[in-house]
Every structure is written in structure tokens, then in C-alpha cells.
Amino acid sequence: MSIQTGDKIPDVTLKVMGEKGPVDITTGDIFNGKKVVMFAVPGAFTPGCSMAHLPGYVVNADKIKEKGVDTIVCMAVNDAFVMDAWGKAQNAEELLMLADGNGELTAAMGLEMDGSGFGLGQRSKRFALIAEDGVVSFLAVEPAGGIDVSAAEKILEQL
């Protein structure tokens, strides 16, 4: 069963790129006491994610933060090196590029996708959520192949 509105974000340790390499970050570090928008993509550098999903959040980062959002998180089941390189390639300095390398948070939220047919293995479904102090206040999960309900413009409407 997937996470729902009103549920707490599971406690998981993930990775982000630090000055000297990947460093641990917990969901508590990210979400506790903050208003956070998090969106997840099936894979960094993939066409839909790179041409439509992530760019929408990059372009709208200031507008999202003006609505009281402390952190905008882009998450994928990729490693911290890939997430860092993708963030730099997409000028995503305003976003936290979060690596769920083992898919632990994705699985704990029940939002995994089997991309084996495309050679991707287990990945995250495409989704976006708003969380306040670690509790989900809005969740939008895309149907297969879609980039609509989790787009930055749709999240702005919910803030």
C-alpha cells in the first residue's frame, strides 16, 4: 500500500553529494519542522525527466519557495554521483538532489515501479508530494507514462 495524505514520511537514510563525496542525510533532516515539496522521477537523465519534469521545478523554484516551501527535493533511485551530475547539468542549484540509491524510501512509501522491461530495474514511480513537518498534506502519483499531476505547475496550484 502506498503512502497517503496524512501519513508520516518513513525514517530512511539516503545520500546527497557533499564536498568530498556522498554523505548521509535522513528523511528527518529533510522534512522535520519544514514545509517540503518532493518530486520523484524514474531516472536521472531519462528523456521525460530531463526535458519536462525536472526543468519545471527549476524554472518555478522561486515561485514555489515564495509559497512558504523551505526545500524542493528531486529524488530518484540513482546514486549520489548521478544525482549531483544531473542537477548540475540541469542548473538545479535551488533543489536538493536526493539519491535513493537502494530504493529504500521509494519502497517504504510503496511507490516503486518495475522498470525491468526497459532495463531500469526497480525504480520510483513518478510522483510529487507536499509535506509539512514530515506529514504528507498532498500526494500526486502519475499514471504510467504521464507527466501531469506531479508537474511543478500543478504543485504550485496546491500550495
From TrEMBL:
Enzyme category, top tier: oxidoreductase
The enzyme's E.C. designation: 1.11.1.27
Pfam family, one: Redoxin
Domain Thioredoxin, chain residue ranges per copy: 3-159
The keyword Oxidoreductase appears for this protein: yes
InterPro entries, A to Z: PRX5-like, Redoxin, Thioredoxin-like_sf, Thioredoxin_domain
Catalysed reaction equations from the record: a hydroperoxide + 2 glutathione = an alcohol + glutathione disulfide + H2O
Keyword Oxidoreductase appears in the UniProt entry: yes
Family as reported in the entry's similarity comment: Belongs to the peroxiredoxin family. Prx5 subfamily.
PANTHER family on file: PEROXIREDOXIN (PTHR10430), PEROXIREDOXIN-5, MITOCHONDRIAL (PTHR10430:SF16)
Function: Thiol-specific peroxidase that catalyzes the reduction of hydrogen peroxide and organic hydroperoxides to water and alcohols, respectively. Plays a role in cell protection against oxidative stress by detoxifying peroxides.
Name by which UniProt lists this protein: Glutathione-dependent peroxiredoxin
Organism: Spongiibacter thalassae
Lineage per the UniProt record: Bacteria, Pseudomonadati, Pseudomonadota, Gammaproteobacteria, Cellvibrionales
